Amino acid sequence: MRHLQGGKMDVSVIHSLARNTLINLIEKCSGTKLIVWESSISGPMGLIAQYSLLKEMGVIKMYPLRTGPLLENPAEHVIFISRPKLHSMDLIAENVHESKKTSGNSKQYHLFFLTRNSLLCKKRLENRGMLGSLTYIEELNCEFFPVDSDLISMEIPEVFGEYHIQNDPTTLYKIAQAIITLQKIYGPIPRVWGKGQAAKQVWDLVKRLQRENNLEETFKNNQTTSIDQILLIDRSIDLITPLATQLTYEGLIDEIFGLNNTTACFPADKFKNKTDRVSESLAEAKETVILDSADALFTDLRDKNFNAVGAFLSKQAKLISAQLEERHEISVQEMKVFVQKLPNILANKNALSRHTAIAESIKDVTDSFDFLDSLQVEQEFLNCIEVDKANGYIEDLLAQKAPMIKVLRLICLQCLTGSGLKPKLLEYYKRELVQVYGIEALLALNNLEKVGLLKVQTGSRQYAVLRKTMRLTVEDTSEINPIDISYVHSIYAPLSIRIAEQLMKNGGWKQLQDVLGLLPGPNVEDTSNIYNGAISNSALNDAPTVVLVFFIGGCTFAEISALRFLSQQENSNVEFVVATTKLINGNTFLQSIIDIDNKKTVSHGI
Amino acid sequence: MVKIFALSVLHKTDAGAVWLKSAYDVQSFSYFQRGSIQEFMGFVSKTIVERTQAASRQSVKEGEYLCHVYVRGDGLAGVVICDQEYPSRVAHTLITKFLDEFAAKYQPHSWPNLQEKDIEFNQLNVYLAKYQNPREADALTKIQEDLDETKIILHNTIEAVLERGEKLDDLVTKSEGLSLHAKGFYKTARKTNSCCTFG
């Protein structure tokens, strides 16, 4: 996990902590073990511990948590690892009862909550007659998953939906606890900024928890801190950015193929050689690729606009070609040096091959009429063009019964960029949607309205004003050699990142008061959090200011790329690190809102 | 074809060169010529040694033959007569070798008094036969040969390794294809930007 150490805030610490916590818990049970993972956890846990590590600790098998009897297995311990969700408790109870029928009392059953115990869940287990059957009920304190050297994620998709639709602030409490954990690891964060209702609530909770648990004294004794500032962003202040199609390399991979916990699956045909391609039937074959900063070529490519990727790959190909050509004219001694360099060159060639295949797969989609037509409509909306009338392309999609998420995404974008839809237009769209997609559209629309993604125009054109004052749309910006963060969507600069940009440039909220007034929710400003003269690492040696940007409700890869771009600017003295409750894209974001009432996703932890 | 025709050991004094021992391989010549050739070679060896300074080496071309001579500082001299293709380095190594052996066998002080018929030095014949194939006999040549062969094998192996996976040329072409057709994503919206705008 060396690649996690690259940044100013050392993410590998989080990785080791989480790993050790897991190891300690698992080792409490001596003997062979079977782990049953709740489905949303197994993916992120892969970032912490590989199966090989678990095998060393006696884990013989792993299953996902689902209904039906637990399969026959010779393990002495069965460990359930789950988020505190009522639905999961039911499944666990079912599994244990079934298992007891077949194996009697030969096994021990344990439950580890990620991340905290839940009274409600324990009650549920009691109601199911389970409490006597579970030997250990422990907390697996793994609040953040280390995705990369400048990115950590809590991987909780329900945060946005639960808070804004169900008015359930429990996850905010979890987030507050997570921030306190961060301060315990990295030192107290002296300056705090934030925008949005959720941001304020989270920070109030943090302060309260700090007071209640007398943490202020412990923090005072901390002499250094790795994080200088934190910016809490409530997703609801910028709902447009997740809906805009990401155009960075990593962003497109997520939009098209899905990038989960640094893993993505691609159709295999572009990965095969010319000769192999014809012979096998490749319709269903998939190629799984790990994409993180351990792959040097990926690190160079990930934040680039996709149109710059081809040229970069081409340059790499020629470079490697030249390096390999050397072999023809060298003497025996030089040959020895060459052979030593060879594995490295070959690894680069493999990486090049892999990414060329991925880029080709992406290009198939981005060259399609579907994609380009959608993109055009998106860009029209972002430029406030014809946002007040029914859009012809959307109507076409409805007529073709295109996937509902795709249509909803465009309609919501039109609504947001028009600062609402005219009542007649909103009615019209709703009618069409229900007609085409049935009752599920109605449920979806209900949730989208609750969240503010669909609403009626109230008169003030907030987006239009923001667009001008914050320079959200930029013409003729270079995709290949970008000079502005708008390159991540080719013409649109993410509002959330513009805010961060301005905040850093102005050193505070003062100059942004007008803009902030247009955005929903209160401002958060706390410049003396546990001020004790704690010297930040950066102040000590003139290093850049480390700013943790925490997205409450999710953030996209394009936003992360934009922040990296800002960090790398010549005149910037800021280094951004990103924390988020979930990595999202437009589709997954909308889906999580639509699915929020689905009991499988609802979390009940405290 | 490389061939050694004669190996000779002589002793050089101020008075001239005294022939001590020889080995000949004149099989390649016709039967009737052999005698005279042998004599001729003996004469050439003697002359050459007389004309060569002490502690020096020489290689002299005589018609189709090459004579390599080494006269040691102590007066002992060796001559190798071979054809033009025979590597001279090997020839000189050979001379040094058999001279050293001769000197080990027969003490230096005895050289002026040695008569040819008294000398038993079969080594010369052995060497003559052995060194007909310079590659086998000479360690250095052998190593050079092996090295060249290894280099070729290494080269071929590297080629094979590089052939694995996708061909580099394919990658170059593919990536060029990717960059050539990349239209700007914003160009799609450009045309509508210029006409009516709302809000």
UniProtKB/TrEMBL annotation, chain A:
<dbReference type="InterPro" id="IPR043155">
    <property type="entry name" value="VPS33_dom3b"/>
</dbReference>
<dbReference type="Pfam" id="PF00995">
    <property type="entry name" value="Sec1"/>
</dbReference>
<dbReference type="InterPro" id="IPR027482">
    <property type="entry name" value="Sec1-like_dom2"/>
</dbReference>
<dbReference type="InterPro" id="IPR001619">
    <property type="entry name" value="Sec1-like"/>
</dbReference>
<dbReference type="InterPro" id="IPR036045">
    <property type="entry name" value="Sec1-like_sf"/>
</dbReference>
<comment type="similarity">
    <text>Belongs to the STXBP/unc-18/SEC1 family.</text>
</comment>
<dbReference type="InterPro" id="IPR043154">
    <property type="entry name" value="Sec-1-like_dom1"/>
</dbReference>
<protein>
    <submittedName>
        <fullName>Vacuolar protein sorting-associated protein 33A</fullName>
    </submittedName>
</protein>
From TrEMBL, chain B:
<comment type="similarity">
    <text>Belongs to the synaptobrevin family.</text>
</comment>
<keyword id="KW-0488">Methylation</keyword>
<dbReference type="Pfam" id="PF13774">
    <property type="entry name" value="Longin"/>
</dbReference>
<dbReference type="InterPro" id="IPR011012">
    <property type="entry name" value="Longin-like_dom_sf"/>
</dbReference>
<dbReference type="InterPro" id="IPR010908">
    <property type="entry name" value="Longin_dom"/>
</dbReference>
<feature type="domain" description="V-SNARE coiled-coil homology">
    <location>
        <begin position="139"/>
        <end position="199"/>
    </location>
</feature>
<keyword id="KW-0564">Palmitate</keyword>
<keyword id="KW-0472">Membrane</keyword>
<keyword id="KW-0175">Coiled coil</keyword>
<dbReference type="Pfam" id="PF00957">
    <property type="entry name" value="Synaptobrevin"/>
</dbReference>
<keyword id="KW-0636">Prenylation</keyword>
<feature type="domain" description="Longin">
    <location>
        <begin position="9"/>
        <end position="125"/>
    </location>
</feature>
<protein>
    <submittedName>
        <fullName>Synaptobrevin homolog YKT6</fullName>
    </submittedName>
</protein>
<dbReference type="InterPro" id="IPR045848">
    <property type="entry name" value="R-SNARE_YKT6"/>
</dbReference>
<keyword id="KW-0449">Lipoprotein</keyword>
<dbReference type="InterPro" id="IPR042855">
    <property type="entry name" value="V_SNARE_CC"/>
</dbReference>
<comment type="function">
    <text>Vesicular soluble NSF attachment protein receptor (v-SNARE) mediating vesicle docking and fusion to a specific acceptor cellular compartment. Functions in endoplasmic reticulum to Golgi transport; as part of a SNARE complex composed of GOSR1, GOSR2 and STX5. Functions in early/recycling endosome to TGN transport; as part of a SNARE complex composed of BET1L, GOSR1 and STX5. Has a S-palmitoyl transferase activity.</text>
</comment>
